[in-house]
Amino acid sequence: MDPSASYGFAAAAAALLLLLAATPAATAHAGGGWEEAHATFYGDETGAETMQGACGYGNLFEQGYGLSTTALSSALFNDGWSCGACYEVQCHDSSYCKPGGAPVTVTATNSCPANYSKPNDNWCNPPLRHFDLSKPMFLRLVTDFHVGIIPVRYRRVPCVKDGGVRFQMVGNRWWFAVLVYNVAGAGDVSAVAVKGSKDGRWTDMNRNWGQIWDGDSRLFGQGLSFRVTTSDGRAIVFDDVVPPTWTAGQNFVSKQQFVD
Fold first, then answer.
1. Three-state DSSP state, 242
2. What is the 3-class SS of 132-157, one letter each residue?
3. Which of 114, 151, 216, 219 has the greatest CB tally within 10 Å of its CB?
4. How far is it, in rounded angstroms, from Cα 173 to Cα 124?
5. 8 A C-beta contact, residue 184 and residue 232
6. Cβ neighbours of residue 35 under 8 Å, at least 6 residues apart?
């Protein structure tokens, strides 16, 4: 993801870098005002290159995210804690913005990593805030995708998801782990606890990377309940959402969701 290659607009890029470095920190939760950033795209119209990624998600179509996704620069990605958060992104102050300037709403599913060996013209290096959008989302913002990079405004917005919160058992016989996804509301999960049907006690899980959380292997062979807390402090208990017969690779859909 090095979107700066062959863009051929060094002077404008330098001016934009200075502007963004001077702007305040990103809004933490939905409901805040607009902030300044910039955006590019990666992959093609199919979105194939946006699958998998640094948040631990897999097939984004099967998991409900589709093409409405973005990778975040280091300053926004926050070491993976922002995975699942939703943003409204709008082309701003560019002759390439589509008439009307309608924004797109995207979920953070990947990281646009910093490249410290290239301190100049790397849009994902801190402290810059950057959205590396799927190409279909970028095309909705601009009149010509060949522009490569555009100034944007962004803000956190509540995530809207179909169905309940989902749990995918992603570990193996030696590693107990779960991917928590399809989370509405704040979208980004800040804490997970698990309770086995046999021992009946809650245990905090550790975030391994992205939105993959791991715990004690003693939970194999037990039915599982999860307590999920999002970054706005809201918590839901998902009782007996995973049966004792679960195996790694299985997905389980709850009947509960973070909705207002």
1. strand
2. EEEHHHHHCCECCHHHCCEEEEEEEE
3. 219
4. 37
5. no
6. 23, 24, 26, 27, 129, 153, 154, 155
- Domain assignment present for residue 5? The answer is no
Domain boundary, last residue among 157, 177, 195: 157
First-residue to last-residue Cα distance in the chain: 36
Summarised one tens digit per residue, pLDDT across range 38-85 is: 999 998 888 888 888 999 999 999 999 999 999 999 999 999 999 999
The answer on 25 and 127 residing in a single domain is yes
Are the CB atoms for 69 and 159 separated by under 8 Å? no
Measuring CA to CA, which residue among 34, 70, 72 is closest to residue 154? Answer: 34
- 3: cis peptide before it, omega within 30°? no
Task: Point out the domain boundary residue: 135, 157, 179.
Answer: 157
Angstrom distance (rounded) from CA 46 to CA 51: 10
Confidence band for 207, pLDDT divided at 50, 70 and 90: very high
Residues with Cβ within 8 Å of residue 26, at least 6 apart in sequence: 35, 75, 76, 129, 156
Residue 217 included in any domain = yes
